[in-house]
Amino acid sequence: MKKGLIIAAGIGLLFSACSKDYLELSPTSSLSKSNIDKISKYSPHLGEATLNGLYAYNVKAGSGGTTGHDDFGQKGYDIYTDMLTGDMNANQLKYGWYGNINNFNGTSNFTSTENYKGWRFYYYMIRGTNNIISGFSNPSTLTTAQKKVLAEAKSFRAYMYYNLVTMYTLGYEANQKILPIYTAPVAHNTPAKKTQEVFELMIKDLTESLKLYEEIGNVNRGGNINYFVTKGFLSYVYAAKGTNDALIEASKLTESIINEGGYQLASKDVLLGGFNKTMRNPNWMWSAQLTMENRLNLISWYGQMDVFTYGYPSSGDTKGLSKELYDKIPTNDIRKKQFVVGIVTDDTGAKYDFGSYAIIPVNKFYPASGKVVDGVRFVESDYVFMRIEEMYLLNAEVNARSGNEAAAKSTLMKLMEIRRPDVSYINGLSGKGLLDEIVLQTRIELWGEGKAYAAIKRNKGTYEYGSNHLSYPSSTFPFDDPRLTFKVPQSELLNNTVYYE
């Protein structure tokens, strides 16, 4: 069976549209464990097909259960969280998308679709992983290929819970009840569990996933989740937990990825190369390689972020950098060139004025086919979900937090020496100043990639809104401002009658 057909089968079996609620635990349109047990006798590739369906659903338009043009899988929630940090601005709201994120109405109201979409998407994906995992009830009898599928599924499930924790909670409060836990495709709801239990599940899933990878001696390099991506997930979980022993574990894991993963730090050319094709970015650890078969156009990350793709930015609704964050990037830092202020000149020589408020990432993100405003109709550029630079920054952060400042500085300097001609200033940093610099570089380096929100939150920092923000210019908000964390949606509270037990 061709890979494209396997992906299509996975989507059809797992994720055909439901007629009722977003968290229907055993819908007739999806596969139950008994379905898997029966079909597996005749189709040994079922687990792989289902897993491919998850990857495809992760980029699918409408995967949050709505028809909204901001609903297109993980990259849609990356935009949401980047906007909440204040580092990314909606420079205009002509068409209205992201208005409720921009003014906090979406996050403040538990009936909003902004709160609903992420919750629905992540639990839908969790159900898919549960179907796969439950189909492999006896790991000792699995083939190498089946162990690989199970390893990916466990890693994927933990990643979904990690995103729920990031978006819907304030962080690690051991005894606070936060999220329902589902580890099997059951037909009943469960109550919210304590933070500690959710973290224990994530750590268990990821640890077991790593063990499976080690048993088969296959790190599964390529665009999908693999051994080192799983280590990356576990690093993020430990960093979010934040206890001293967890920070030490995160340091070990990120150091292993840096030293053993074989991923190259982005060169200056790569940093200005468009972030558009997996094969051109040896620093990418996990990505989605998109083709015409994905049928993505307007409702996509590029359709909402890229002026060279047919979509909202080319019509004026650009998303850009906070002016004050832009000002913090020195002129001799190569990443300053990733952005232009106001006027965009494309490959045809045509000039487009998007306004002085717009600091647009036209030299960081652009299509592989080139820079022509509104020139791409169907998306064939890839999505990046994780790259090696994250692991350098995270390694520096957790070392700084645990008091190993020498290691933190060393790692940060290795990253920064590619970006600036002189990084000696790092030697003079210590304590809060060092940690603040690491978080600042995380915000600059990973702008537009959905990472800064978690970094600021786990460090109990402040969200800084620039003078070019439409609703809250030149404002600051503490990480625990309730308007900046997503709410458990009304639909969950109505349909899950045991949520508060």
Task: List key phrases describing it.
mainly alpha; 501 residues; globular; 19 helices; two-stranded antiparallel sheet
Description of the molecule:
It is built from 19 helices and twelve strands. The protein has helices at residues 3-15, 33-40, 46-57, 74-85, 99-102, 105-108, 113-134, 144-168, 195-216, 227-241, 244-260, 268-271, 301-305, 323-327, 388-401, 405-416, 431-445, 452-458, 490-495; strands spanning 88-90, 177-180, 192-194, 284-288, 319-321, 340-341, 343-345, 351-353, 359-360, 383-387, 462-465, 475-478. The longest helix has 25 residues, at 144-168. It is mainly alpha-helical and 501 residues long. It has a two-stranded antiparallel sheet with strand order 1-5. Strands 2-3 form a two-stranded antiparallel sheet. Helix content is 44%, strand content 8%.
Amino- and carboxy-terminal Cα gap: 46 Å
Q: Biggest β-sheet: count, sense, barrel?
A: 2 strands, antiparallel
Note the overall shape: globular
Q: Strand content of the residues, in percent?
A: 5-15%
- Oligomeric state of this protein: single chain
Write down the Rg.
22 Å
Considering DSSP H and I runs of 4 or more, what fraction of the residues is helical? 40-55%
| Arithmetic mean of pLDDT | 90
DSSP strand count? 12
Strand order of the largest sheet: 1-5
Query: What structural class results from the helix and strand content?
Result: mainly alpha
| pLDDT < 50 stretches | 1-44
Q: Helical region count? A: 19
Short description:
This protein has 501 residues and is mostly helical.
